[in-house]
Amino acid sequence: MSTRAPRAARAAEASGASGSSRASGTGPLLSLRELSVGWSAEPVCAPVTVDVAPGEAVCLVGANGAGKSTVLRAVAGLLEPLAGQVLLQGQPVDERSASFRRRVACVFDEDAWFAELSVAEHLELVARGHGVRDVAAVVDAELAAQRLTGAADQLPVSLSSGQKRRLLLAAALVRPRALLLLDEPEQRLDPPGRAALLERLRAERDAGTALLVATHDTVLLRGLADRAVVVDDAADAGDGGPAGCRVVDAEEAARVVSDPVA
Amino acid sequence: MSARTGSATGSATGSATGSATGSATGSATGPATALPGPAAGAALPTRRDLVREASPARALRGLRTAVTDMYTTVLEVAIATLLLLGASSSLRQALQRGLAEPAAGPGPVTSTSAVAAAAGLAVAAVLLLLAGLCRLGPVSLPAAPTAWWTPLPVARGALLRPVVRRRAAALAAAGALTCAWAASVALGATGTAGAGTVVAAVAGAAVLGAALAAGGAALLLPVLVRHPARASTPRLLRRAAALDAAAAVLVVLLAVSAAAAVPVASVPPAALAVPAAAAALAALVALAGPGRRAHRDVAGTPAAALRRGSARLTRLTASLLQLDLRETGRALAADGPPRVRSARPAGRRAPRVRGPLGAVLTADLLLLRRQPRRLVTAAVLVLVPLVVAAATSAHPGVVALLLWAAGYAAATTLSEPARSAVLVPAAVRALPVDARAVVLVRLLPVAALCALWGALAVPLAATTSGLVTAGGPTAWWAWALLGALAGPGWAAAALRGALRPDPDLSRPQVVTAMGAVPTAAVAAVSTGPDLAVLATLPLLLALLAGGAVGLVVEGQVVATLAAVAIGWGYAAARARAREPRAGAAA
């Protein structure tokens, strides 16, 4: 955690007009308050309470079916919570608003590209839509970083599953963002791709972006997470005190990932 | 399970080669290879064994169920036939009234042969039917048999040949019915042909339709059988596009004949006898040659092609059962294997746009530019009401109905960006734009195109229907204005239809004398067309009244504004709707 102070300082500088920064003392960028999500009236996991500051990476860990993606979709405003709150800079999230979409970039396990546009065209339009300057250079750099330069003129539907995942990451990274929500970004990536992903996300974090990442990858977890939320079944969480998902450090989270039933 | 045939050795060989034609009985040679797993050493079952295992499940249905099924089927077919006959009778009477009062006024087009128009439109319908067959795959199975049979090392010929025969027979029947129905309406409307002539013409039309459909299927089947799946699919899709184009050319030719003012009675029914006989002969040759050979070799159909056809068939069947015509269109319009390269030349950039709304608009326009068939379809739909009106001087009611349906169909095909965005909502979520603004941006280009469509289609159809007369109340430009004003209303209705939710089939059905009516499916199907009715009400009333009167233009403005407001409001609410309190757990 030696990078904490300079990272926070960069975050304060990066947040600029948005005015959100742990360093500036105005509170976290993202706050989950007793957030409960689930099927109909049935929660899939214990309530989640955690803050994510600019320049901080928080991971969600847990077994398959624990509810990590469900929590993440609620944070992204795609799913109505059962209870609790999701606050972005102190305001309830509204995914449908332009301001939310301007600040938050998401990568979920779903297609997210315009029909009939090539890989490069999609990235260019996303970048132009966000007012990026020198779009060509930014897109070319991102294509190279994601090893998609050779596929720039292909339609996304013709890509392999790993390439599609890299395109989704590229679309999230080719535009400005204050918060990155990633649902198992390491999925379907080859080992070099996973290593590059880790480096890229660390750079994002160090540049002041807040990250909330659901993952099963212990290398990503240890290399990236400042803290982690262990997403558990609600029935297992109650021990006399208020039920809630635990917030642990990266090492403890890695142990949970390695042996989720322990 | 019988162990009469095959052996462990044989099964190993059959599995290893994956031969489509390899059967358990024919694979008893080859090197001995030990197979792991619980079936190691066991003989493979024959097809007869597998069918025998499955047959008790069928027998459990019982006599009562079989009788009930048969009764229901017969009743439904009888009701459908009566409805068709009733509609045909009404259509004939309307056309007869139109012919009794031919157009008297000036106009760019006046008339064309009813017989030629009926034959042309019917043949175009059969061509579209064959194009649908290409997209489905000439041979395919439902999902369960495909998943069950294709991995098994048994011969597929006995399984697929009945499918080929049934599908060819069904196509022939559909083609015959289409052409015979068109002939009966056209000849009945003229009222001049004797009963013998009508019967002969209807029978000839049926032969023509059946020959075209069955012969076409016989020519398409070898494409699937003779090539690997990766090669047959693009070939079939190219043929589908060619058949679509041929149908469009037919409609255009009929419109040209109207523009040339071909007299209504210039083509007697007997004139079609030679083409019908030639088509029947060609169909026989196709069936006896390529069709017969493909029928013999159908066992070699690649499993990948069967799986592709199965997926398409399942999607199509499910959409029809749910009355989800939006999904039906997607199932038939899907382009098979994706193109590796886009239409974009390498190195060229996306158009320079400013802001997120510009990005959305650009993405939509690029989609329409790269799917030109949508623009062609809309253009052809301009001509369909014109052709029918020109062929028969049709009753204004018929023209109004045709115009309304063609306008909604054109708006629907032009609304493909909104329809595809429903499947990939995350694409727009990546842009910093409010969901309400997105739907408005999506509406604008479609509204403009539909205004152009209405400004062309409405005056053409009105003129050929005799609604534009020298001393009549409405000039052609007034009809053009009405059509242009109605266009955005059609677009708003199509947007509403594009963003409607999937039908909730758990809702209760309403029992009627004609059977149970699934309210949710009916509600889903009518979402979109309902707004199209509201949006075009003044235009339709003007058509039925024989001319625009009084405040109809102002009424059309109000109706269109109301439709746009409703359509936008509905689409914005749908676009802003979040998932319910449910979701897939991680």
Detailed description of the structure:
The complex is a heterodimer of chains A (262) and B (586). Chain A is an alpha/beta fold and 262 residues long. Chain A is built from ten helices and twelve strands. In chain A, the strands form three sheets. Chain A has a six-stranded mixed sheet, sandwiched between helices. In chain A, strands 4-1-6-7 form a four-stranded antiparallel sheet, with helices on one face. Chain A has a two-stranded antiparallel ribbon with strand order 2-3. In chain A, strand 2 and strand 3 form a beta hairpin. The longest helix of chain A has 16 residues. Chain A is globular. The N terminus of chain A is likely disordered. With 586 residues, chain B is mainly alpha-helical. Helix content of chain B is 70%, strand content 1%. In chain B, a hairpin with a 2-residue loop joins strand 1 and strand 2. At the A-B interface, strand 2, helix 2, helix 3 and helix 4 of A face helix 12, helix 15, helix 16 and helix 17 of B.
Helix content of chain A: 25-40%
The major β-sheet of chain B equals: 2 strands, antiparallel
How would you name the oligomeric state of the polypeptide chains in this document? heterodimer
Helices of chain A, by number, come to: 10
Percentage of β-strand residues of chain A: 15-25%
First-last Cα distance of chain B: 42 Å
Report the C-alpha radius of gyration of chain B, rounded: 27 Å
Radius of gyration of chain A: 18 Å
Percentage of β-strand residues of chain B: under 5%
Low-confidence stretches of chain A: 1-6, 8-25
In the predicted model, the low-confidence regions of chain B spanning at least 5 consecutive residues are 1-30, 103-109, 581-586
The average pLDDT value of chain A, as a whole number, equals: 85
Number of strands of chain B: 2
Global morphology of chain A: globular
Number of strands of chain A: 12
Overall body shape of chain B: globular
Give the topology string of chain A: H per helix, E per strand. Answer: HEEEEEHEEHEHHHEHEHEHEH
Major sheet summary line of chain A: 6 strands, mixed
Strand order of the largest sheet of chain B: 1-2
Order of secondary-structure elements of chain B? HHHHHHHHHHHHHHHHHHEEHHH
Portion of residues in helices of chain B? over 70%
